Amino acid sequence: MTFSIIARDPASASFGIAVCTAVPCVGALVPHARSGVGAVATQSYVNVDLGRDGLALLALGISPKSALEGLLADDPGAALRQVAGIDAQGRTFAYSGGQCVDWFGSHEGRDYSVQGNMLAGPQVIEAMAETFEETAGSWLSIRLLAALEAGQAAGGDKRGRQSAALLVTPAVVAKGAPVEFDLSTYELNIRVDEHAEPVPELRRIFEVLLREGERAHDESEAHHAEWRDEE
Predict the structure, then answer these.
(1) DSSP character for 119?
(2) What element of type H or E holds 117?
(3) How open is the CA angle 110-122-6, to the nearest 5 degrees?
């Protein structure tokens, strides 16, 4: 019922997830991520414990494969689940239970994994993976959102769409607020909980946030310039 991408930025220890589905409030269920630790996407008859407990195990240094396979072994609904994880070493693991609804599948690449179920076809996963790789060098949030848009353009969830989310953990974890407004120092957590076109709405909100960041940066630069002139 969902398509998602999880990824790691090896240069910053930041992790992110972008996801879209045909039910409301996907951002409260599927994405789980923590800077310096990893990310987990749990979907298809969601078991949120796979995300919460999966992150806790990754924080202990357990690999995504061992962590998630161990949790699935104790899950009576494992055949219905789809889950993927990535850790601070870039190790990935993706699982799709045999009772997931077609089309379902996944693709694991370097520092990312794409997965989905009840999709229009394998082209959704393929388009997302291709777009993520083609945008290498861009900010992680930009790459994830572009991949999600590519998946939607390729057909996405075959039932339609209703909600979407983008979660990216901070590149720098620091005590106290930064001197200047910098999106990379905050958790980016955008949720479109119910909308006729959730992915374009996610893009609209993201662009508004970027413009606000640019405005705040310009105001900060102007303030610093005035302060230097007064000296």
Answers:
(1) B
(2) strand 112-117
(3) 35
Q: Which helix H or strand E contains 69, and what residues bound it?
A: helix 64-73
Residue 173, SS3 per DSSP: coil
Task: Give me 26's structure tokens.
Answer: 């996907």
Cα–Cα distance, 25 to 65 (Å, whole number): 27
Structural contact between residues 225 and 59, judged by C-beta atoms closer than 8 angstroms = no
Strands 188-192 and 2-9: unpaired
pLDDT in tens, 118-147: 999 999 999 999 999 999 999 999 999 999
Cis peptide before 139 (omega within 30 of 0): no
Does 75 score more than 50 pLDDT? yes
The structure tokens listed for 134 are: 């083609």
pTM to 2 decimals? 0.90
Decide if 141 contacts 16 (C-beta within 8 A). Answer: yes
Distance CA 42, CA 49 (A): 9
Residue 131 structure tokens? 């777009």
Is the domain spanning 2-230 CATH 3.60.20.10? The answer is yes
Measuring CA to CA, which residue among 96, 94, 91 is closest to residue 110? 91
